[in-house]
Amino acid sequence: MPDQVELIKGKGGLPFLKVNNTKASALISIYAGQVLSYKPEGEAEDVMFVSENAYFQEGKAIKGGVPICWPWFGADITDPEHPDHGFARNSNWTVSSVDMLAGGNTRIKLELVDSESTHKIWPYKFYLSLEVIVGDKLSLELSTCNKGDQPFTITEALHTYFNVGDATQVEVLGLEHAEYLNKAENYVEVCQVAAIALTSETDRIYTDVKHDLTLVDPVFNRNIKISSSGNKNVVVWNPWIERSAEISDLDRDDYKHFVCIEIANAASSTVEISPGEEYKMLTKYSVIKK
Ligand code: TA6
Questions:
Q1: How far is CA 78 from CA 72, 111, 147, in A?
Q2: Cα 27 to chain center, whole Å?
Q3: 262 has catalytic annotation
Q4: Residue 278 is a catalytic residue
Q5: Percent of the chain scored above 70 by pLDDT?
Q6: What is the pLDDT of residues 76-92, one digit of tens each?
Q7: Taking 90 as the threshold, does the pLDDT of residue 240 lie above it?
Q8: What pLDDT, on the 0 to 100 scale, is given for residue 1?
């Protein structure tokens, strides 16, 4: 393991990787393959929000950072008894490699492979990997490989909780004129007319999206640039006041402290992967101080 990376016992005794290089620091839970913290050098505020009430317990999802929704996003349409957002975020992943790259970035690869327990709820052979590069930018690449002999279909998301100074004051740019399905209102189809501002419960699946977005945060005095590829959708979620109070692993005021902007293939944007084929979804985050 290079000096930049330390294996530690994290909250709940879960295994975490702590990364510290000249450009940034990060914390990654091996359980769930989940980035929990990312701070570029010199930046006071974390890019990631993690709830104080988050569960750090095998079998449960960690509320914050970058949960991986896979092999389905939301409810499993084939069986609503299955866990929402799939099983990747509730599974034990393993570390496949840790490297120091030229220029001082750190690359960590995590993997999840099918097993008897995954076959019980999803009967396919797969190799799922997450490549995390920690540097001036945080780069995340989720690759799904079909290791079986029949095609399978997935939906997926990198369900990122961005830490914000005050959610009621942020704006998300880059989705003006995009259509969205409004989950907060029975999936009615709506067209976004201006920059996104949060004024009530927001749970939207944007369709036919642009791949360069900006989260404008006037309180933390920064913009977060989000670029992506391999995604047909972007999901924007904020539970607002009542839902925030109802969700057991959020505090009642937490809706003010995060907005989820999720690179996704969701709803009807399913991805079919043939035997031996691989599909990649990639996102990069960078902080621009104002
Ligand atoms: O991505 C938005 C969403 O699907 C919302 O509908 C909301 O329920 C959220 O994810 C959180 O889901 P979770 O299962 O992590 O509580």
A1: 10, 25, 21
A2: 14
A3: yes
A4: no
A5: 100
A6: 989 999 999 999 999 99
A7: yes
A8: 79
- Two tokens, residue 21: 């290089």
What's the chain's Rg over C-alpha atoms?
18
Question: Quick check: bond before 67 cis, omega within 30?
Answer: no
| Average pLDDT estimate for 11-22 | 98
Would you place residue 276 in the very low, low, confident or very high pLDDT band (cuts 50, 70, 90)?
A: very high
Q: Of 158, 137, 286, whose CA–CA distance to 225 is shortest?
A: 286
Atom of ligand 1 nearest to the CA of 237: 2
Is the pTM higher than 0.85? The answer reads yes
Q: Of 85, 141, 156, 159, which one is the catalytic site residue?
A: 159
Q: Is the pLDDT of residue 210 over 90?
A: no
Ligand 1 atom showing the smallest separation from residue 157 Cα: 1
